[in-house]
Protein backbone atom coordinates (compact mmCIF):
# COMPACT_ATOMS: atom_id res chain seq x y z
CA UNK A 1 0.00 0.00 0.00
CA UNK A 2 2.03 2.85 -1.38
CA UNK A 3 0.68 6.39 -0.96
CA UNK A 4 2.11 7.78 -4.20
CA UNK A 5 1.14 4.72 -6.24
CA UNK A 6 -2.40 4.73 -4.84
CA UNK A 7 -2.91 8.43 -5.58
CA UNK A 8 -1.75 7.84 -9.16
CA UNK A 9 -3.59 4.58 -9.86
CA UNK A 10 -6.87 5.85 -8.41
CA UNK A 11 -6.53 9.39 -9.80
CA UNK A 12 -7.45 10.36 -6.25
CA UNK A 13 -5.99 13.80 -5.62
CA UNK A 14 -8.52 16.64 -5.90
CA UNK A 15 -7.51 20.19 -5.07
CA UNK A 16 -9.35 23.42 -4.30
CA UNK A 17 -12.77 21.90 -3.63
CA UNK A 18 -15.62 23.53 -1.74
CA UNK A 19 -17.81 21.94 0.92
CA UNK A 20 -20.34 23.50 3.28
CA UNK A 21 -20.49 20.66 5.83
CA UNK A 22 -18.11 18.02 7.14
CA UNK A 23 -20.37 15.34 5.64
CA UNK A 24 -20.02 16.95 2.22
CA UNK A 25 -16.24 17.20 2.69
CA UNK A 26 -16.02 13.50 3.56
CA UNK A 27 -18.14 12.68 0.49
CA UNK A 28 -15.76 14.70 -1.71
CA UNK A 29 -12.82 12.88 -0.10
CA UNK A 30 -14.27 9.40 -0.69
CA UNK A 31 -15.65 10.07 -4.21
CA UNK A 32 -12.34 9.49 -6.08
CA UNK A 33 -12.11 6.02 -4.50
CA UNK A 34 -15.73 5.23 -5.38
CA UNK A 35 -15.05 6.39 -8.96
CA UNK A 36 -11.96 4.18 -9.24
CA UNK A 37 -13.75 1.15 -7.79
CA UNK A 38 -11.43 0.97 -4.76
CA UNK A 39 -14.40 1.36 -2.38
CA UNK A 40 -18.18 1.21 -2.60
CA UNK A 41 -20.74 3.77 -1.51
CA UNK A 42 -21.08 1.64 1.65
CA UNK A 43 -17.64 2.81 2.77
CA UNK A 44 -18.78 6.45 2.76
CA UNK A 45 -21.93 5.48 4.70
CA UNK A 46 -19.77 3.61 7.24
CA UNK A 47 -17.52 6.65 7.78
CA UNK A 48 -20.55 8.89 8.39
CA UNK A 49 -22.18 6.40 10.77
CA UNK A 50 -18.92 5.90 12.65
CA UNK A 51 -18.35 9.66 12.93
CA UNK A 52 -21.87 10.21 14.22
CA UNK A 53 -21.36 7.46 16.82
CA UNK A 54 -17.79 8.20 17.96
CA UNK A 55 -17.18 11.79 16.87
CA UNK A 56 -14.46 12.89 14.42
CA UNK A 57 -11.80 10.51 15.80
CA UNK A 58 -9.82 10.84 12.59
CA UNK A 59 -8.81 14.50 12.95
CA UNK A 60 -5.12 13.83 13.43
CA UNK A 61 -3.79 17.38 13.70
CA UNK A 62 -5.06 20.94 13.29
CA UNK A 63 -6.40 21.33 9.74
CA UNK A 64 -6.12 17.64 8.76
CA UNK A 65 -8.49 14.69 8.89
CA UNK A 66 -8.06 11.09 7.79
CA UNK A 67 -11.60 9.82 7.18
CA UNK A 68 -11.80 6.05 7.45
CA UNK A 69 -14.06 3.36 8.80
CA UNK A 70 -13.53 -0.21 9.94
CA UNK A 71 -11.13 -2.04 7.65
CA UNK A 72 -12.63 -4.26 5.00
CA UNK A 73 -16.30 -3.34 4.84
CA UNK A 74 -17.02 -1.57 1.56
CA UNK A 75 -13.31 -1.69 0.62
CA UNK A 76 -12.35 -3.51 -2.58
CA UNK A 77 -8.64 -2.67 -2.42
CA UNK A 78 -6.24 -0.73 -0.21
CA UNK A 79 -6.22 2.89 -1.31
CA UNK A 80 -5.81 6.54 -0.40
CA UNK A 81 -7.29 9.80 -1.66
CA UNK A 82 -6.47 13.39 -0.78
CA UNK A 83 -8.53 16.52 -1.17
CA UNK A 84 -7.98 20.14 -0.21
CA UNK A 85 -10.72 22.65 0.51
CA UNK A 86 -10.72 26.34 -0.34
CA UNK A 87 -12.16 27.06 3.10
CA UNK A 88 -12.17 24.73 6.10
CA UNK A 89 -15.22 22.77 7.26
CA UNK A 90 -16.04 22.52 10.96
CA UNK A 91 -16.61 19.12 12.55
CA UNK A 92 -18.95 18.40 15.48
CA UNK A 93 -16.11 19.00 17.98
CA UNK A 94 -15.51 22.51 16.60
CA UNK A 95 -12.24 21.61 14.86
CA UNK A 96 -11.66 22.99 11.38
CA UNK A 97 -10.19 20.89 8.58
CA UNK A 98 -9.01 21.87 5.10
CA UNK A 99 -7.08 18.71 4.09
CA UNK A 100 -8.75 15.29 4.07
CA UNK A 101 -6.76 12.16 3.34
CA UNK A 102 -9.06 9.15 3.06
CA UNK A 103 -7.69 5.76 4.03
CA UNK A 104 -9.39 2.59 2.80
CA UNK A 105 -7.75 -0.59 4.04
CA UNK A 106 -8.72 -4.20 3.49
CA UNK A 107 -7.28 -5.20 6.87
CA UNK A 108 -6.49 -3.57 10.21
CA UNK A 109 -2.86 -4.75 9.97
CA UNK A 110 -2.28 -2.81 6.73
CA UNK A 111 -3.99 0.21 8.26
CA UNK A 112 -1.58 0.43 11.20
CA UNK A 113 1.69 -0.99 9.88
CA UNK A 114 1.88 0.48 6.38
CA UNK A 115 -0.68 3.24 5.92
CA UNK A 116 -0.27 5.28 9.10
CA UNK A 117 3.55 5.68 8.90
CA UNK A 118 3.28 7.08 5.35
CA UNK A 119 0.62 9.56 6.43
CA UNK A 120 2.66 10.64 9.46
CA UNK A 121 5.72 11.08 7.21
CA UNK A 122 3.78 13.36 4.84
CA UNK A 123 2.22 15.49 7.56
CA UNK A 124 5.42 15.88 9.58
CA UNK A 125 6.89 17.91 6.71
CA UNK A 126 7.26 21.58 7.67
CA UNK A 127 4.04 23.54 7.06
CA UNK A 128 2.44 20.45 5.47
CA UNK A 129 -1.17 21.67 5.71
CA UNK A 130 -0.42 25.11 4.24
CA UNK A 131 1.75 23.56 1.54
CA UNK A 132 -0.90 21.01 0.55
CA UNK A 133 -3.64 23.64 0.44
CA UNK A 134 -1.36 25.76 -1.78
CA UNK A 135 -0.74 22.89 -4.24
CA UNK A 136 -2.11 23.66 -7.70
CA UNK A 137 -1.68 20.21 -9.26
CA UNK A 138 -1.58 16.54 -8.25
CA UNK A 139 2.09 16.53 -9.29
CA UNK A 140 2.88 19.06 -6.55
CA UNK A 141 1.22 16.77 -3.97
CA UNK A 142 3.14 13.77 -5.32
CA UNK A 143 6.38 15.77 -4.98
CA UNK A 144 5.57 16.28 -1.29
CA UNK A 145 4.95 12.54 -0.89
CA UNK A 146 8.33 11.92 -2.52
CA UNK A 147 9.95 14.43 -0.17
CA UNK A 148 8.46 12.59 2.84
CA UNK A 149 10.15 9.30 1.87
CA UNK A 150 13.24 10.18 3.93
CA UNK A 151 11.22 10.10 7.14
CA UNK A 152 12.43 7.83 9.95
CA UNK A 153 8.80 6.61 10.19
CA UNK A 154 9.29 4.75 6.91
CA UNK A 155 12.52 2.92 7.74
CA UNK A 156 12.18 -0.78 7.08
CA UNK A 157 8.79 -0.54 5.37
CA UNK A 158 8.27 -2.23 2.02
CA UNK A 159 6.37 0.41 0.08
CA UNK A 160 6.63 -1.25 -3.32
CA UNK A 161 3.50 -3.32 -2.88
Automatic annotation (TrEMBL):
Major subcellular site: cytoplasm
Signal sequence range: none
GO cellular component: cytoplasm
Pfam families the UniProt entry points to: PTS_EIIA_2
Domain PTS EIIA type-2: start-end pairs: 6-148
Superkingdom classification of source: Bacteria
Function: The phosphoenolpyruvate-dependent sugar phosphotransferase system (sugar PTS), a major carbohydrate active transport system, catalyzes the phosphorylation of incoming sugar substrates concomitantly with their translocation across the cell membrane. The enzyme II UlaABC PTS system is involved in ascorbate transport.
Protein name, entry field: Ascorbate-specific PTS system EIIA component
Source species taxonomy: Bacteria, Bacillati, Bacillota, Bacilli, Lactobacillales
Amino acid sequence: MNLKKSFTENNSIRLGLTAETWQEAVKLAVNPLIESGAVTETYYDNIIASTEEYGPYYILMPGMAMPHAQAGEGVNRDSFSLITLTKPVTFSDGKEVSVLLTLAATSAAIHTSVAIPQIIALFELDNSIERLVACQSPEEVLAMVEESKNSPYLEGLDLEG
